[in-house]
Structure formats: structure tokens, C-alpha cells
Amino acid sequence: MAQLYYFITVVSLLLFLQSDSYAEAGTIGVNYGRLGDNLPPSTQVVALLKSRNINRLRLFEPNLDALDALQGSGIEVVLGTLNQDLPQLAADLSFARSWVSTNVIPYSQNVRFRYISAGNEVIPGNLAAYVFPAMQNLDQALRDAQLPYSIPVSTSVSTAVLGTSYPPSQGEFSMDIDPIMRSITGFLAANGSPFLVNVYPYFSYINDPVNVPLDYALFNSSRVVVRDGELEYKNLFDAIADATYTALERAGGDSVKVVVTESGWPSNENGQIATIENARMYNNNLVAHLSGAKGTPKKPGESIEAYVFAIFNENLKPRGTEQNFGLYYPNMTEVYHVEFIN
């Protein structure tokens, strides 16, 4: 009897450690944007990531060259769908099955998929109504595929989904999209899937530099900038994350974890704000802040999984700062150094 109890305990522990709900403290990934006509081959990109000990990656859409290069690399992948595929994914389960059959099943033995994201930043917007049914169909298609491990389905949103974000304890989704967000939140809670959100203190700062101190946006404040009841905030990233947690709770998602699928700072094209020094400072501070298990004021001890945007400067993105979020130039030399602590 004692041996049986010991066996069950060990098996239970192993299952817990391997489960998708278990998140290692301090794991930071990167976004692999591909909107450039001068980017290096995927095989070189994967080799670069491995040399930097970066073991998580986000792809915005299926790219078979990238997925081929990632096989056997040990790098875990967040895989998105094209936004324009959402209407068909929402309306046609067979299309969702075909999508999984083409983009997931052939790689599932040699690539660990962390999450599938139904689109990116389409809520609010004309495609918003398609997101929830697309998530349902993708989830069903993945279950039907009987893969060796489960892959949570979610969607990646911008903080535009928040109608209120200040103070963090008053965070809530915008009223016009509240029904959509409640459906999505219920799905995430029922399936143990995370809420994927893109968090950019940079944009908060440039949109309101009078009320948002630069050191607060850059993780450089040594003083408490925002007091919210008993909670104290020295950086804007935590405040946005906690506002998101509060919004999820109001929508019935008390158990839903937040994963930050994008965060970064541009290094050029905006005077003294988008500079190499500020970008270096922000991303190094971001990695250091998330590398332990400190958590946020609202969720102490719960480290947030996050993905830096992005690996490369991408010359086919809109002109200006959008082309200058990369850690590397397309020739694979560093724009600035970030010390990844994984």
C-alpha cells in the first residue's frame, strides 16, 4: 500500500510539472516578426536564439520554413493564425481541422507548441466577433487530432480592450466588447488557457507624457508612483498587468493567468524617447523584473511569462518607430545587448 501511495505521488508530481498550467519563473521569449525583405534564413535565426539561451518564441502566423528550422531545437512556440483566416476558422470546423493538420500535426513531435493564438489585436475591430468561435473550432480541432500533449488556445489582444485601466483595481473591459470578452474569458477559465495581452508602456508614455513619468515607464523609478489602496506601483508594466487581471476577474476569469505576448521599446525615429539607450534600458529591466518569481503587487509570487518584441528591425512595417523595435539588425548584429536570464 505504501509503495502504491509513493508511486501515485511521484506520478502526480511529474504530471504537474509537465502540465500546461505550470509556468517556470523567469522565462522570457521573443517575437519572431518576418515583415522584412532582408531577414536571414530561419535556420540562422534559430541558431542565434539557441546561442543566446532563448528558449521561447512567438510566430505571428504559420511559416513552414520557420517551423522546419525549429524542429528539434528545444525552443517552445506560440503560434498565431492569420487575422484574415478568422472568419473561416469561426464558420467552418473542417477548415480549423485543415489548419491544424497543416501547421501543427506535422511538427508536434519535434516542436513544443505552448499556445495557439486566434489572431492578433483584432479586438476591438471588424473581426472581433469571429475570435471566440474561431477559438472554439481550433480547440476542437486540436482535441480531435489527439496530439501527445494538449495545446491551449487563446487570442492575443492589445490593451485597447480595457475601457478602464487606472487605477489597476478598477480595470475592466470596454463596455462595447464586454460580451465578447466575457465569452472568451469563460472559455479560457474552463480550459485552463492563459489570456494573451500585448503590453507597451512606451505607447502609454508617448500618449500621455504629462501624467506618465518616463522613469515609471522604463522600470527606473525608485519611488512609488501609483498608490492603489494597499498596493504600490513603481513601474507601469505591473500596473497594466494588474489592470488586466482585474478586468478578467470582473468577467469571471479569476483563475485565468496573464501572458504578455509582446512588450518592447523602439530604438529610433522618435527624438529623445525612442533611443538605443532607452530601448536597452527598458528591455533589460523587463527581463530582470520578470526573471524571478516576484510577480506584481496584485499577484505577488506569480511570475509573468513574457515575449520581447522583437528579434529584428523589420523594414516592411510602417515607416517610423514600427521599423525599429528589433534587438538585432537584419545582418544579425545587435542593435543593443539584452542579457536574457533563462
Question: Which tags fit this structure?
Answer:
single chain, 342 residues, alpha/beta, two-stranded antiparallel ribbon, 11 helices, 15% strand, disordered N terminus
User: What about the largest sheet?
Assistant: 8 strands, parallel, barrel
Termini distance? 40 Å
- The largest beta-sheet arranges its strands as 1-2-3-4-5-8-11-12
Radius of gyration of CA atoms, rounded to a whole number? 20 Å
Tell me the structural class: alpha/beta
| Number of strand segments | 12
Strand content: 5-15%
Secondary structure tally, helices = 11
The SSE string, one letter per element, is HEHEHEHHEHEEEHEHHEEHEHE
| Helix content estimate | 25-40%
Overall form: globular
Mean of pLDDT: 92
Unreliable spans are: 1-25
Report a brief summary of the structure.
The protein has helices at 2-18, 42-51, 64-70, 86-91, 93-103, 128-145, 178-191, 201-207, 214-217, 236-250, 276-290; strands at 28-31, 56-59, 76-80, 113-120, 153-158, 162-164, 172-173, 195-198, 226-228, 231-233, 258-263, 306-308.
Question: How would you describe this structure to a colleague?
Answer:
It is a single chain. This protein has 342 residues and is an alpha/beta fold. It is 36% helix and 15% strand. The chain has eleven helices and twelve strands. It has helices at residues 2-18, 42-51, 64-70, 86-91, 93-103, 128-145, 178-191, 201-207, 214-217, 236-250, 276-290, and strands at residues 28-31, 56-59, 76-80, 113-120, 153-158, 162-164, 172-173, 195-198, 226-228, 231-233, 258-263, 306-308. α5 crosses α6.
